[in-house]
Amino acid sequence: MLVLGGAALLVFGDKPKAYELPNGQPIGQRTVISFWENWTGVEGQAMRDVVDKFNMSQNRIYVNTVEVSTIDIKTLIAVAGGDPPDIVTLWSGDMGQFIAYNALTPLDSLEDHGIVTSHTYVPYIWRLCAPYGRLYAVAATPEINMLYWNKLLFAAAGLDPDKPPRTFDELNEMSHRLTLYDSSGHLKQIGFLPIVPGWWNSMWGVYFGNHLYNYQTGYFNVDTPEQIAAYSWFASFSKQLGFTAVDSFLSGSEQQFDSPLNPFMSGKVAMELIGPYFSNFIKRNNPGLAGHYGIAPFPTSFGKPGDVYHGDCDLWGIPRGAKHVPEAMEALQFFSEQDNIEYLCDKHCKPSPLMVVSRSFIANNPNPYIEEFEQAMHSQNVEVLPPSPIWARVNDELANAAQRIWYGAPVEETLQQEQVLINQWTSDALRLQKLRARQGTNE
Amino acid sequence: MSKAVNIADGQGRLYISWKDQLTGMAFAAPYLVGICIFLLFPLAMSLYYSFCDYSMLQPPLWIGLDNYRHLLTDDTFHIALINTLIYAAISVPCTLAWSIFLAILLNRQIRSQGIYRTIIFLPTLVPLVATGIIWNWLFNSDSGLINYFLRPVLGLVGGIAAHVAAWLGAGPATLQALHDISPPAWLGDPNWAMTAIIFVSFWGVGQTVVIFLAGLQDIPAELYEAAQIDGAGSWGRLRHVTLPMLSPVIFFNLIMGIIGSWQFFDIPYVMTAGGPGRATLVYSLYLFNAAFNELRMGAASAMAWILFLIILALTALAFWSAKKWVHYS
Asked: Do A396 and B190 touch (CB under 8 A)?
């Protein structure tokens, strides 16, 4: 029966798809390279457009795009299994682990030929692509977080709709005024909630002057006074509003930036710290809000807003063991050309990672605040996710510590415990790294 | 076809010709090869990796007992261990009792018995991921069905309690607290999240109920008749006939329950991802995160072997205690 079934599948089953160019022509004798991409939807389509353009631009290489979820882990496992894709899109937080595990091919040839150098990108993007000085990835689309505020809700609360908070005191005061309860005492609207969207709960210290990662030593600064101040501020929202009341308030919402049920998008939360792509989805999901929100740099405790930003970027790399490295390099070179990067960033509603942008990119960008984002991109003070080999574990731990603090754990004690724990992990990782170097078992 | 030759010698030993032995081995070979490649080899390798720093991307580096030593001082590991212990200690006996109760009900000769049996078994056919998502909605603190029904009940209870408290002379703060009594934010509150997860485990008892039902139907009717003649009532028959006769089946389900509860993974993975604040981080979830999110295969292997020893010890304990309470007819 099994044999019969197998034979039937072979005869009648779905045939493997023959690759085709966007114009319907077969690809002929081209070398097929695989590209694992983590974006879907509008962003994924933009990437596919660039890939189509590459496939039509020459007659030797065909890039086959595959959309992959949890791309970091799947790529690492594929590298371990000896069958990785030729190009992969990475989150910037993956870099430390990928480099430590020797899972990426250095892109020396791109740098040696002057195609991508430290002058190509704004400073923080270069730090992400070459965290230890050597180029391991090139930039795709960046993001830099800003405070979005709902001008309609500001006006309704008697606040100046054109004046965002400039200090933490102002932020707290405005949030208080924007927080409303219904007749039965349930939360109806909240001014600001640090757990919305909740993606950077490990990075709040940035705005209080903390440098989470020490690039020289490889250790983390978890229980510094700045970090304690940050998480005390974070916890103050939970204490004032009550975490069960907040949970109940948010239970009908979705944290996803692209959902109409996002609390900012649906008018439940008046201010949110989030990236430039948010404009795309406000326009799509709540057009009524499109002309009635503003963006501003997030306040800092030690200076003025914009003295520090938190930035990130999607990156393209070539995994170790990729079978078509020269072809992948050629594709990366094409993807990194200014017009392609600007096309992608335009469709993602994001600023450009490049040092120089075209006038048309600014003039035609669908993001109404593109100039503000571009200005922020060029800041010298952009904090990024640490390129530590153990960042995935530390990030999970810190996000969890933030969660416990949110639920009432004492701030100072929790952070001190985390500091001891993360120090231990770091020293273990460094010790093992040295041991491996001595034994020559790094690869 | 070769002729089977089994000749017993004077002492009762069997001799099988080498040809028959080879034939037997050939028939068993696919299984033996499979068990060596897919079970014994991975088992041996995981034992070796548990003494190594191993990420799959670099060769394993021998670090002796470090992985085990670190687990001793790893607070998160302790939390996962305690959470699993709590889950196992509550869910195993409660689901067993609940399953026996349902099986006894379903064993009664009533109309539409088949329909009731199908209804009880049906949830086990729903994929666990779908079950988790459905329960996430049911437990939604604001719009979930559970709180929708609980809210008026608690309002009524709180109102009555407030009246009683007022009559007893309680202060305004107490009275207000009683009036404000509201359902918990199940999955958003670390104090309630594990309760919710345990509650979900009651949902999938269908298979256990079916096994108990089969066990109940194996109990000879004469035993009940004899007990009835001796004057035993319903409770007496349950205690002195049903439960002792069902004890081998209870024992089987207890062992399966112990193993299942320590390997519990899918529901917290789907519903809470171990949160809030690690309140539902169970052993297997922590092991999975170490292995597949952080690629700490060495540490994960050490955890897997500790888990194996825990399950082995609990199973041995159950077998030891079985001598006292399991009655084979």
From this structure: no
